[in-house]
């Protein structure tokens, strides 16, 4: 069975020494997040995910979900206790407002728990994960009655949430949505249509399921300007909060998927289901985007999470498996062979995954902290600055960390040789599970277009200029430090390439938008490499400040490795971006 | 159901215009391979794989193999007719000697068929594929009696072959093999032990199965110098060729794998099974390497094959799926949206896969042709030169084309969005199937070490120098051609980087072998990019010579695309190689 140990020490280093959580005590909820509280939360999160969740992962993949003849869906048997333990621990409400039953702690801590939980069991983590997205959308756009009706039960975890966007003929292009909403005359609507790929759409973990559904009100304008958001509970809710009649929404079938077998991915049929408008008529996309942005960051976290657990298992195997001898002489002379971790190609693989994972975690937690600032700071300028960073980094966190998360799961699987290809070690599952993160909540090509086509130019480039300024300032401030120089030098070079690429788009994509499209994916990854490089430089500085403490010397080695082995890719990315779209688009469609 | 159309026109272009098969008519068997014969063979190969094989792929994955209580194994129902059609077409003997019932045609044509068959159904193609490897080993090392007993039936395809190397505790490190062979006193041996991951180990497609097994004769020296090769038939064979008693070898269980579900991957138990020594005592590894090298090239072909069929399906979907509008204005104004092939990021993806696939096919067929020359030429110098190329390119073809084949299958799957993640479109299967090619017949890290640690320095670097010389000469000869200049320029630059990396190893890896290990994978891929780039330059030249013929203009666009989008990676690879092993190896094993 796969091993998993939550990265508590890594996370503590990031929260305390890199992000310096204690300097934000003036933000609501942060004063309560004392170092002791944070330590206790990390410990509890580790305990739950290591002992209750992780053992359910492999069996859940094997067992999968079953749709019963009555349309109900049975999740893997082991999921029930694991989910119950999560609810009883109050984890769904960790950062939710106290008036809803939450603890109002920083959502940064919630992000930490998302990582641990997704490492331990991604398919299971998706159930509460979608609930948290639905909570976020209802908090912003729900009416007071809707909030009172749904949120306390969702924050408690006894009801769950879903998001219903995709239809058979449309995923990315939501303007094509056909699901219809007809006013019932009593303020409610009757929804009819088919939604597909609905994660956690039907299951047996909670008493009720709160579906958020995009649909078109009869007579609404065509395209995205005619889409509204509705809340459609599985069971109608009485005024006293009791569960009433079964609503006209049901699971038509389960998808047979490559991975995340423990999550019920449903075709949902809406047959005149009763729903209520959330937010304004025809403004459904904007409302859903609250949930989408939340979800995109969470998916980026999933990419890291699977890479982390895959890495841990690769390390375990690399220390255990005896095969061949070190190129520099036997390291296990009394054994029949050396453990494969002595081989440079194995070591290179492990170092690569780890250098990416630690930087990804740092950037994710930094982004989560900006989300806290954006939502909680009393200072409008601070909120704006944090929102800028959040918007800019959302496609990077989602697109880059899921692409790399999958790559890293594949790399970790490779360490096992043939044993990685059979299901019993769990490495195949990590790869199959990680694959979905590159697709859902906006395929990564869409993330790249969001970054290049929307986020770069937004507000006259304010967000991207602020980011460049921050990295530049760090380089200037620390470039003279001899210990940091081997790290800051390559970072500055990477930043220079990112700035060149940005300039190239400004000069070449305005008049020929295909130039933006053809370079978007490379640009997103270039951006990610520089942003991760910046985090390594910041981590290296924090490690130097704690010189001699356990693990700090490792940080400096990993930072150097990142600059030697990962940052050089930026040169290739810049070259590809600067090649433009001409050759890419030269052939007619018929030539394919 | 997935689509598949064998790339007949591409292959004809390569055989006729690029490799100029007709100039080798002096080689045995080549005179018979007239353009008309080759065209007819390609047409028949296409017909068989498209109509008989491809429809069995998805159902074979779903159905998988079943081990029955008596130890027999049932393959997917649809495989029987497909395999029979292959046998009846005489495909197993396409390039086998006539005295064994073969047609003695160039093995280059056999490689073509391997590609088509592996695209149509990789799991099924592995059954005859392993038979061909076993035939190769027996042809070189088998006694006259062994050849007479086994080869005609194997060439016919009514018996199949396997290779039994791996044991639970050893795969790469074959010196640790424990399977024991005890002389029976009558010239035969009794073999006892357990082999794992045995592809096609037990099945119902053929009347007999001929196992080639590595084992240690009682009292043999420890390590690789004490390994011998044995032939162990499932049913003992009488002097008249009739099948006799069931031998003491059986399938203990089937592995539950990520993919290639239609191939029976067996744990094989040898319980005093009767076997006969193949070749010399304690020289089993050398004998098995005949089969291994054959198999490694075939696995490289599999990488291409899966990438090709995945590409074709991605193209089909990209032309069919309507989603969003072109950045340059609607291309399908009367429809609800444009086909996604209008989007530059989709186009970039398709162009990338295709630019890799066509170059990979060119290099594979060129390598296969060298194999023909090495085996058939009467001229010792020509044979030596061909053998040098073959040895050098074997790890490149295996390692690079399986890594890229998997990447390309993943890229193709991504084009489908969520529809790529569900099993019904077949894209998940391509990814899951392609994954094994990076692992079996020597994991790709081992291929990289074979290239860097053995092939580079062999015979004073004769093979690599010849290759550099060939590419250099091409660049010198054609650099002045204005039409080729945008292709030759970047090729020369890539070659320069490869030469620099080679020099770096010469200067830094002799004294510190870890420097070779830490750079090996990057070097293998750098080598592959330059070798593929060379093939693009050669193809571009051939296309210019046929200017105006169908498809020739596309070749020039693809060659340019390759140089703009793929070749820049060589800069990053060189930088990583030159970083050396110091940082990679800096942490102690306990720090992981």
Stretches of chain A where pLDDT is under 50 for at least 5 consecutive residues are none
Quaternary structure of the protein:
homodimer
| Beta content of chain A | 5-15%
Radius of gyration of chain A: 24 Å
Shape descriptor of chain A reads globular
**SSE sequence of chain A, one letter per element:** HHHEEHHHHEEEEEEEEEHHHHHHHHHH
Of all chain pairs, the largest interface belongs to: A-B, 90 and 90 residues
Strand order of the largest sheet of chain A: 4-5-11-7-6
Assign a percent range to the helix content of chain A.
40-55%
| Major sheet size, sense and barrel closure of chain A | 5 strands, mixed, barrel
Give the distance, in angstroms, between the N- and C-terminal Cα atoms of chain A: 45 Å
> What's the β-strand tally of chain A?
11
Helix segment count of chain A?
17
Short description:
By secondary structure, chain A is α+β, with helices and mostly antiparallel strands.
Q: What's the topology here?
A:
The structure is a homodimer of 592-residue chains.
Chain A: H1 8-18, H2 35-53, H3 57-63, E1 66-67, E2 73-74, H4 79-88, H5 107-120, H6 122-141, H7 144-156, E3 159-164, E4 180-183, E5 189-199, E6 208-217, E7 227-233, E8 235-237, E9 243-246, E10 249-254, E11 265-278, H8 284-320, H9 344-376, H10 380-414, H11 427-437, H12 444-455, H13 462-478, H14 485-508, H15 514-545, H16 552-566, H17 569-578
Parallel strand pairs in A: 3-6, 4-6
Antiparallel strand pairs in A: 1-2, 4-5, 5-11, 6-7, 7-11, 8-9, 10-11
Helix pairs in contact in A: 1-2, 1-9, 2-5, 5-6, 5-8, 5-9, 6-7, 6-8, 8-9, 8-10, 8-11, 9-10, 9-15, 9-16, 10-11, 10-12, 10-13, 10-15, 12-15, 13-14, 14-15, 14-16, 14-17, 15-16, 15-17
